[in-house]
Write a structure and sequence with these properties.
Elements: H1 18-27, E1 41-46, H2 50-61, E2 66-70, H3 76-81, H4 83-100, H5 117-131, H6 137-142, E3 146-149, E4 152-156, E5 159-162, E6 165-174, E7 178-180, E8 208-212, H7 216-227, E9 231-235, H8 247-259, E10 263-265, E11 268-275, E12 280-286, E13 289-295, E14 297-300, E15 304-306, H9 313-316, E16 320-321, E17 325-326, E18 339-341, H10 352-368, E19 381-383, E20 388-393, H11 396-401, E21 406-412, H12 417-422, E22 428-434, E23 440-447, H13 450-462, H14 467-471, H15 482-494, H16 498-510
Parallel strand pairs: 1-2, 1-6, 2-3, 6-18, 8-9, 8-14, 9-10
Antiparallel strand pairs: 4-5, 5-6, 7-15, 11-12, 12-13, 16-17, 19-20, 20-23, 21-22, 22-23
């Protein structure tokens, strides 16, 4: 079979080139000597991903005695197998699209150009290795954290065993994250497949790539790999793509990835896989038809599963669920009041920025008897397709389920000058307010840089600034972010009722 699944090196990083050797030297150095624990720690952190690193660095910076335990690679999923490598590849795929579409802007590109897949992946590995210095074991030791590399396992309600040492703690935080969830698919056990943990180890492009799951990871990588020259088939068991998103927003992205060459098999049921001599046969029912697709490699992108194995949570008195992860209350305390949790291990918001701010909540509550609530966090998210979809807060479906009436204001990018000049008119800014007010309850943005634009709405929601305040804020012209202000204008115009207009006309006639 072409391009078999990459085999892992000692720490799951392939290929073993200069860049990945630097990554491993930073994230799990082979010659690392664990310190000797002395006395009780204010905080023991289990897991060196985003939540764990933020908790450990923050606590040490506040003067706490901190231990950080990581069994694999510091930096966690985000650095090694998630946000960082995926956005590196996506950036290269956007460069391909810019060259491909240059004629739309009056630029003539010579024939014969192509995407160098190996160079794209090497660029990603180089940048990832450079970024890994920020998450390195050496850096955290310099911050005053005792870094233990090895398998952490609770041996009681206030102690953890790692590499033969016992770490006693006043408080602990479980931040072991999540990994790719692999569904039960007939025939899957007979074929090699990729997940987000191995797809970035590829050095040659899969000629024919099948992707199961049209959520954020599946859609981002389907579009990126298609732009890089792969034939991509995307399978989703629901209708369309990105089922969590605004339907109109998802449809815009769907049309974009179809134009980029992705073949979408939605409403795909009864999926089966068969191994051929030099291929994988992907069999699925889609819209009443039984289809068979030959592919060279398969990527599973069907969600996340919490990393609870091996922790011996029973010994610590921590309740958990195999699918949902560690149980926590609104202050992120587990069923053991000494132990907290943060990040993907306990949250339905499986995003790096969510893990970051959950860790900050833990620090307030675990070290300083705080009463900060995770439910008070306003958490946006973004899918980094082209165009991007960004969302924060409620949508009409979630608002209806909670009995909340909404007013909705939508500004199409086709009426925003900068979007017209950029050739990026497919998209919109949509804001939902509490009915009859300018109080913002949620928003969706579809735009080339929606992930950057959503922060203005998130800031307003976090600090109680309504649409009227946004309308009063001067935005530079011309920018696509001006669409956010224009939504504020839409709200102001909604206040100009027929009765108010009549009063204004009478006043202006009287004052002439």
């Amino acid at each position: 079979m072409e391009n078999s699944v990459p085999q892992a090196t000692r720490e799951g990083v392939f290929p073993p080139d200069t860049h990945n050797r630097l990554l491993v030297d930073n994230a799990h150095p082979a010659d690392w000597a664990n310190p000797r624990p002395s006395g009780r720690y204010n905080l023991v952190v289990i897991g060196g991903g985003t939540a764990g690193l933020v908790a450990a660095a923050g606590a040490a910076g506040l003067g706490a005695k901190v231990a950080l335990v990581e069994r694999h690679l510091l930096g966690g999923d985000c650095l090694n197998f998630g946000c960082v490598p995926s956005k590196g590849v996506i950036r290269s795929s956007r460069a391909v699209a810019a060259v491909r579409d240059a004629s739309r802007f009056g630029i003539r590109v010579p024939d014969g150009w192509h995407a160098d897949f190996a160079a794209v992946m090497e660029r990603m590995r180089s940048l990832r290795a450079d970024i890994s210095r920020h998450d390195s074991a050496a850096r955290f030791r310099e911050l005053g954290v005792d870094v233990f590399l090895g398998e952490g396992r609770f041996s009681g309600p206030d102690r953890l065993e790692v590499d033969g040492a016992t770490l006693r703690f006043r408080k602990a935080v479980i931040a072991t994250g999540a990994r790719a969830a692999v569904p039960e698919i007939p025939g899957l056990e007979q074929v090699e497949y990729l997940t987000n943990e191995t797809v970035f180890s590829l050095t040659e492009p899969p000629r024919r790539l099948g992707i199961v799951g049209a959520g954020p990871i599946g859609c981002e990588l389907a579009q990126a790999f298609a732009r890089l020259g792969c034939q991509v088939v995307l399978v989703e068991n629901t209708h369309g793509i990105l089922p969590r998103e605004d339907p109109q927003a998802a449809e815009i992205v769907k049309q974009a990835i179809l134009r980029d060459g992705v073949r979408l098999l939605c409403c795909g049921h009864n999926l089966e896989l068969r191994r051929g001599d030099d291929h994988i046969l992907l069999c699925v029912e889609s819209h009443g038809k039984r289809l068979e697709e030959r592919i060279d490699q398969l990527l599973i992108a069907t969600g996340r599963r919490p990393n609870i194995e091996g922790l011996n949570l029973e010994a610590a008195g921590v309740a958990y669920d195999a699918k949902q992860g560690v149980q926590v209350d609104d202050r992120l305390r587990t069923t053991n009041p000494r132990i907290f949790a943060a990040g993907d291990i306990c949250s339905r918001f499986k995003f790096t920025h969510a893990a970051d701010f959950m860790a900050r909540t833990v620090l307030r509550n675990a070290l300083f008897l705080g009463r900060a609530k995770a439910s008070a966090l306003t958490i946006p998210w973004c899918t980094y397709t082209s165009p991007e979809i960004a969302h924060v807060g409620l949508n009409p479906q979630s608002a209806e389920a909670r009995g909340i009436a909404l007013d909705t204001y939508t500004q199409e990018l086709s009426h925003v000058d900068r979007a017209i000049l950029d050739g990026e008119t497919e998209g919109f800014v949509r804001v939902h307010t509490k009915k009859g007010t300018d109080v913002i309850l949620g928003a969706t943005i579809v735009a080339a840089n929606a992930g950057d634009m959503i922060s203005e709405i998130t800031l307003a929601m976090t600090h109680g600034l309504g649409l009227k305040k946004i309308a009063d804020t001067i935005h530079p012209y011309p920018t696509q972010a001006e669409a956010v202000r224009k939504v504020g204008d839409l709200y102001n115009r909604s206040r100009l009722t027929p009765f108010v207009k009549t009063l204004f006309r009478k006043w202006l006639a009287w004052t002439r």
